[in-house]
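Subgroup meeting minutes
Present: P.N., E.W., G.H.
Scribe: E.W.

1. P.N. recapped why we're keeping a running log of single-chain structure predictions: easier to compare across weeks, and new members can see raw inputs and outputs side by side.
2. G.H. added today's entry (569 aa).
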Amino acid sequence: MKHVYSIKYMQLLVCLLLTVPVLSQSVDLTELKKVKLSGGLSVNTLYNSYNPTGADPLSYFVSGNVNVQALGTTIPVTLSYSSRKFTYSQPFSYNQIGIHPTYKWATAHIGMSNMTFSPYSLSGHQFSGVGFDLAPGRWKISTMYGRLVKAQEATETTPAAFQRTGMGFRVGWQGDKLRGGVTTFYARDNPNSVTIPVRPDTAAPFEQPTPLANLVVGINFGATLFNFLQFDVEYTNSVLERNRTITAKGALTAPAALLWHPNATAESYGAVKSTLNAVMKRTNTVIGVGYERVDPNYLTLGGYFFTNDFTNVTLNFSQPFWGGKINSSGSIGVQWDDLKNVKTSSQRRLVGNLNVIATPSPRLNLSASYSSFQAYTFINNSIQNITRLSPLEQIDTLNFTQITQNASLNAVYQLRTTESNVQSLMANVTLMGVANKQGDMVRRGQLSEIFNGTVSYSYGLPRQALTLTTGVNVMDSYISRNRFNSVGPTVGLNKAFLNNTLLAALTSSYLYATAETSTSEITNARLTLNYTALQRHNFTFLLASLWQSTQLTATGNFITATLGYTTRF
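Output recorded in log:
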C-alpha cells in the first residue's frame, strides 16, 4: 500500500501547484538570436609532503560553471570533480553536476542540488532530481523530487545504505502585516535496493539498518502589530517509521500521521519556535524574546544532523549611543534538556554575551565582547538513593557546573593616512577561562585559563604598491595543571608589479614554545604569487614550508605547494 500513499502525495502536490496564482509570460521570438554565454573554470593542483595516511601527495580539483542567457531565461550549469580518493565508503556524491535555469520569478534545479524548506524538515540535504523555486507576487513556492541517498551494499567496515527518495512542497505568502505558510516533506527507503541479511552480521562492529519512511508537516505564521511588534511562530511535526517493512498499522494521532497512516513502528516528534521583537524607532532600540523546543529524538530524513531534546529561552537587545558612535548588543538565555526526565543525567545551560563597538574618532576603532557560558549537570544517582540507610545520610555531591568565560578587546589606530604614506597600529587581547565546579568547590586540575595577545604595525606606500607588516604574538595558558607559553614575531611584505597585475606576498613567522618538560621551535615561511592576464585569466601559486624541532624529536620539514588557474568568460 506504500505506493498508494506516494500517488496520493504526488496528486496533492499537483493540486496545490494548480491552485497557486501563476502569471503568464510572453516570449519575443526575435530574442532567439540574443544568446549570451558566461561562466568560469577553476583548476587547482595541490602537493603536500605530509601524508600520514599514505595517500597520493599530488591531487587536483576541477570546478566550473556555464550560464546560458536567452529569451529572458538564465540556465546555469555547475560541475565539480576531484582526483582525491577517500578511504571510506559513503552514499553521498562528491563529484556532481547541476543545472539551475532561471526565468523571471521561476528557478529550476536539475541534477545534483540542495534546497531548504525549514530547519526541521528539508534542511540543505543533497539530492539528485528536480526542484523549483517560484516567487509570483507575494507568493513563494518551492517543490522538489529526487534521490536523497544512493544504494550501497554492506562491507566489512561500513553498513548498507538503502536508496532513499524524497519529495517536498512549501508555499508561503508575505503581506505587509501578515505572513504564513505550510511545508510538507516525504521520504522513504527502498528495502529492495540492497541485500540485507536476515539477522545482523555478528562479526561487523555495527548493526545493519532497517528501511525508514518519514512524513513531515509544518506551519508558520507571523504578524506585525502596532507598527513596532513583530511576532513569528513555527510548528513542525515529524512522523518516522523505523521499519517500513512491518505491515501492522499504528495508532498515532499526530497531524502528520492523520495524512499518512504509518505502521506500528512509527514515532511522532514535534518542534516549535517563536520570536517576539519590539522595534522602538525613536531610540533605535530593539528588544526581543525567543522560545524554541525540540522533542527528544527529533529526526527527519531531510537533513544530516539535528539537535534535539532541548528547550531554549532567549532575551536579546541592541541599542546605539552617542549619535551612533557606540553600538551595543547582547543576549541572555537558558537551555535545558531531558524534557521527559528519563536520562541518568540532565543539563541546564546559561548563556550570555555583550558586544560593544565604538568609533570615538575617525582614527580610532574599538570593539569589545564578553560571553559567559554555564552548564549545570545533574546526576540522577539511583543506586545511591536505594542503598542509603537513613534519610539523614548525606549523599556525595554529584552535580557539576562548567563555567566558561571569554573576553576580547580589539583596537585599531590610524597613525597616519596620506596619499603617499599609511601607518596603523593594531592590538588584540583575548582571555578565556574554564572551570569545572563540583558542589561549591573547584577541584585541582579542573581549571583552565588562556591568554592571547597580538600587537602589529603596518606601514604602507600606496604609490609604490608596497605594504610592510610586523607584529608579535604572546600566549600563556594553564590547562589541567600544565602550563604552556609561546612567543614569536611575524613579518610580512606585500608588493604589486606590472601595473598591479602581479601581486606577491612573502610572510615568515617564528614561534618559541615552552611546556613543563620540553621546548619547541616552529618556523613558517609562505610565498604567494597571483597574476591576472587580460582581466579574465588568473594564475595563483602558493608555496609554504614549515620547520619544527623539539627536544624529544628531530627537526621536521613539511612542504605544501598549490598551483591554480581560474578564468571567466
